[in-house]
Amino acid sequence: MTEVLTVEDLTARVDEELIVHRVNFLVSKEETLYIVGPNGAGKSTLLKAVVGYPGIIVEGRVIFMGEDVTGSPIDERARKGLILSHQFIPRIDGVTVGELIEMVARVSGSGVSTEEVAELLEIRHLLGREFGKGLSGGEMKRVEVAVTLAAGPKLALIDEPDSGVDVESALVIAEGIREMIRRSPVGSVVVVTHTGFISKYVPPTRVCIMMSGVLGPCSGPELLDKVLAEGFRIEVA
Amino acid sequence: MRLLDTLSPTQLERVKAALAKPALYGPDVDVRDYLLAEGPAQEVEADEDRVREVGIDLERAKRTGYYMQVDSERIRYISGLPGVEVMSIEDALEREPEVSRLIWRLVDPATDKYTAVAALRGRGGYFVRVRRGIRMEEPVQTCLFMVRGGLQAPHNIIYVEEGARARVLTGCTIMPESFGLHAGITEIYLERGARLDYVMIHAWSRGTHVRPRTGVLAGEEAEVVTYYINLSTVRTLQTYPRYILRDGARLHSVSLILGRGSSIIDVGAKAALGGRRAAAEILSRVVARDSSRVVARARVEGAFGRGHVECKGLVLSDAARVEAVPGLGAVGRGVTLTHEASIGKLSEEAIAYLMSKGFTREEAESILVRGFMNVEILDLGPQLTAYVKNLMRLLARAAI
């Protein structure tokens, strides 16, 4: 079996509003899939629907590692290794970055050490900070990639790792994503981006465009170059 | 000298009149039953597991000192450190009649019906004195345990001499099936430059009314650090310790309150800034679940110094109620006072985030409650710090 994730006819609604419309895609072993599209295209909602986020009404099927997980709650999917890396992180009062990384590593049994991810993501100086409080855009992304690594994903779905970050942070985040791929038993990852900036450092093996809640077309890495040169609308047309 | 003999005839008259006087805050309790003469003394023993639940470790406390009181009569104590005296208040009065000058000086016995009951019927209580220059590492431990129920009204005195550093851990608890009124009076004196770290845990039962009355006088440059923790269900609990801070004295008061079952709780602290460099910080964290009702009060007032008040509440069920009452009072231009108050629920966004990383909903809620309760622990020494941290964990677990 080469399919890591199969998404079939997935429709997602938030507060009755249709955000994602009949989306189909596959993630195979050793695949780095990029889903690119403008702001508001439904990319984040698609990822949330795939991991079973509460508050999203979903139709269709999600099959992860050969198992139909469509009806299972978000934490169960996470414990199976399907992990969402968020675009924004919430504030958690009284819990430090270091404590949360440690707790996530413990609950997932990933064996990842806080020291190790802190070194890799250059967040050693943030370990004692309250989670989600007073972090810059780049710091927040680096912290979130560190937490995701600690969760030991088989497949991470990474939402906008490159929005609002400078080159230095992007390089570090890219290193974190490459580490996720190295550690994943299937060697795959899904990256959602509207800038494509991170693709310089984490090259895609396949690219899909998403606009107005619809996914497609999908093609090889060259599609991303074309989109970045000509824009999303031209491609879809 | 008996405790009752410390009252002057005038005080006695006022106290008798105060028996009908309800407290300013909290539900009114009929105290008449508790004024009746007690039956013949029975042999009562503390349940050791229950004592350990409130963190009291008498074996370890032999090194520093402990005071253990079961109901009103069974009292034992030990002083383990030179310069740290621990004894019952009656024995202290016997040995040094001048100790009577420390009784009812910071708490007026005619404040309300609970102080009046304590003044007329109170027995026992600890006397802890830490001599000049002594610096304690581990705390003296005191335990007030109710077995048969009824009335327990000890009168406690802590006296910290100039420049001494004292640590006291006190746990109050009751057998689960007992009903009663606990009206403990505590008067705390700190001489110039003294410091007291005082940790108090309450673990009552759903049949207990609790009305502690506390007064603290911190002399010049003295420092009081206090953590008060309520862990379990109680029928009603109301307490509002009052602190008087002289020039340069500092107070850091933290209350961590869990409202469970149908508990009615009204807790707080009030500080009077009595000198130019006095400073008070009063913090509370309240978590209310089930159908509990909790009021958190905090007030700083004065003409000098600075004060900060912070009341934060977390409501975990639709039937629970939390009220935060921060209060500030300034006279003149020499004082700076601030406050912060908030009441909310657990953030669904944060719960979903944690669940997306593999935590169950229950684990996620527990992490958030623990974070909410996680206040800074000032330098209390390793034993008290570990103890307070452990209580925070227990509180979070009990809240979910």
Please describe what this structure looks like.
- The complex is a heterodimer of chains A (237) and B (400).
- By secondary structure, chain A is of the alpha/beta class.
- Chain A has one domain (3-236): P-loop containing nucleotide triphosphate hydrolases (Rossmann fold, 3-Layer(aba) Sandwich), CATH 3.40.50.300.
- In chain A, 33% of the residues lie in helices and 31% in strands.
- In chain A, strands 6-9-10-3-11-12 form a 6-stranded mixed β-sheet, with helices on both faces. In chain A, strands 2-1-4-5 form a 4-stranded antiparallel β-sheet, covered by helices on one side.
- In chain A, helix 3 (97-108) packs parallel to helix 5 and helix 4 (114-120) packs antiparallel against helix 5 (137-150).
- Chain A is globular.
- The mean pLDDT of chain A is 95.
- Chain B is globular.
- Chain B has helices at 9-18, 48-53, 58-61, 89-95, 113-121, 348-355, 361-373, 381-399; strands spanning 65-70, 74-79, 84-88, 126-130, 140-146, 150-152, 155-160, 165-174, 180-182, 185-190, 195-203, 208-210, 213-218, 223-230, 236-239, 242-245, 250-259, 264-273, 279-288, 293-302, 305-315, 321-330, 335-344.
- The mean pLDDT of chain B is 92.
- With 400 residues, chain B is an alpha/beta fold.
- In chain B, helix 1 (9-18) packs across helix 5 (113-121), helix 6 packs across helix 7 and helix 7 (361-373) crosses helix 8 (381-399).
- Chain B folds into 2 domains: 3-345, no CATH class; 346-400, no CATH class.
- In chain B, a hairpin with a 3-residue loop joins strand 1 (65-70) and strand 2.
- Chain B has 8 helices and 23 strands.
- In chain B, strands 3, 4, 6, 7, 9, 10, 12, 13, 15, 16, 18, 20 and 22 form a 13-stranded mixed β-sheet that branches.
- Chains A and B meet through helix 2, strand 7, helix 3 and helix 5 of A and helix 6 and helix 7 of B.
